[in-house]
Design a protein that fits this description.
Distance between the termini: 118 Å
Oligomer: single chain
Strand content: 5-15%
Largest sheet: 5 strands, parallel
Mean pLDDT: 87
Shape: globular
CATH topology of the largest domain: Rossmann fold
CATH class of the largest domain: Alpha Beta
Strand order of the largest sheet: 7-6-8-9-10
Length: 401
């Protein structure tokens, strides 16, 4: 009797447990269906949103990313903190100067950061006269102007490059050309008389610098030595160098687009962000290889111009925060972007450049850097400018001894 009751009780428990298990399985299936349903609903919403954004954010000369990613980048960049003109940056890289001096330098850098139209070259930096920043006729002031009194045998040295060579966010006397003059005076007291010209221009890269050099030579300017410092803009502004056009080409095309101007009431759309992204439908590795090819073609054409006018030319591929810089993540100011062309392009540049006369790859200079090499996202501090100037002087000193 007891055994019978016990067995009946066990059967009820098993039956109840089975019912619970069946219910649990049913709930799992139900939740799975709900999750699948939600997933497809979200997918449909995303597709509709993408279609809508494609209409709103589509750019005739824009990038090839999804419109939703484009919107995300715009929002991210809008709220991204910009330390470009921060006085604290100046104080960090120039600790021996007063807060007043650093504030004045930051203010003048911001005020002078203007481009104006220039025939054949599209644009140049506007003239500016300040205490620490001075620009006139596409030339950044070099201080001191020359290491010795100019004479008949004075060697004129033209420096070409982008904003890093120009000396963005530093004073006149702290640019690479200025540091070059100071180091030359220190190390070669009995060297040749030299006069240095800083033709560095924000947003310029090697092809545009070729145009600038050609224009100078064609109009009667005759340097004895030309020095090119490039790399950042050639491989950062991908679309500019890939299509061999100046940085502001996308936005300036709108000037000649009558339909666009009419529809937008002469409000121009800033499309400069698209310049740092890959051309549409081309593998990243192929883009990098092409950029390297064009970079050396530009150097080759510069060399032909230099030879034709009996000018000595030297080329330097510069250090950037994106390549071989172990301190990038800990750096207070430099850009932390990892998705760039430099890890693909710079090894090719270093390898191929070894066979080119007067070409020097200095892209590894940040490998052991422990100080403050940058004053903002891309531009060098006064101390780093001096180190780069030293590397350049070491390479060209035989021409000046």
């Amino acid at each position: 009797m007891i055994n019978t009751l016990f067995c009946n009780h066990i059967q009820k428990l098993v039956s109840h447990k089975s019912q619970l298990s069946m219910a649990a399985v049913g709930k799992k299936k139900s939740w799975l269906k709900v999750l699948i349903f939600i997933f497809f609903q979200l997918l449909m919403v995303f597709i509709l949103l993408e279609i809508l954004l494609s209409v709103i954010y589509f750019q005739k000369y824009g990038n090839d990313s999804l419109a939703s990613i484009q919107l995300y980048k715009k929002i991210k960049n809008k709220f991204k903190s910009d330390n470009t003109y921060d006085i604290r940056n100046q104080q960090t890289v120039r600790p021996g100067s007063s807060l007043k001096i650093n504030a004045k330098i930051a203010a003048e850098v911001k005020e002078s950061n203007i481009e104006v139209y220039e025939p054949w070259l599209q644009f140049k930096t506007a003239d500016f006269k300040g205490q620490y920043v001075n620009i006139e006729g596409a030339l950044r002031k070099t201080a001191p102007d020359a290491s010795y009194t100019a004479s008949a045998d004075t060697v004129s040295i033209y420096f070409f490059g982008g904003s890093t060579l120009f000396g963005f966010n530093v004073a006149d006397g702290e640019t690479i050309p200025s540091q070059f003059v100071k180091l030359y005076k220190e190390k070669f007291a009995h060297g040749k008389s030299i006069k240095v010209f800083n033709y560095g221009m924000p947003f310029y890269y090697s092809y545009q610098e070729l145009m600038l050099l050609s224009n100078l030579l064609f109009t009667g300017y005759k340097p004895g030595l030309v020095i090119f410092l490039d790399g950042l803009n050639d491989f950062r502004f991908v679309k500019a160098s890939y299509y061999r056009q100046p940085f502001f080409s996308y936005i300036l095309r709108q000037v000649f687009d009558k339909e666009y101007l009419k529809a937008n009431k002469f409000h121009f759309k800033d499309t400069s962000e698209a310049m740092i992204e890959d051309p549409r439908g081309i593998r990243s590795e192929d883009v990098s290889a092409t950029l390297v090819q064009y970079y050396f073609q530009n150097i080759g054409n510069i060399q032909k111009m230099a030879d034709a006018y009996n000018v000595k030319a030297f080329y330097f591929c510069q250090p950037v925060p994106f390549y071989n810089y172990p301190g990038q993540d800990k750096d207070l100011f430099c850009d932390k972007d990892k998705n760039t062309k430099f890890n693909q392009a710079y090894p090719l540049v270093e390898k191929q450049g070894a066979a080119i006369k007067n070409f020097f790859f200095i892209g590894n200079m940040l490998q052991g850097e422990t100080g403050h090499p940058f004053v903002d996202g891309f531009h060098y501090s006064p101390d780093m400018n001096r180190k780069i100037a030293g590397a350049i002087l070491g390479a060209v000193k035989k021409e000046l001894e």
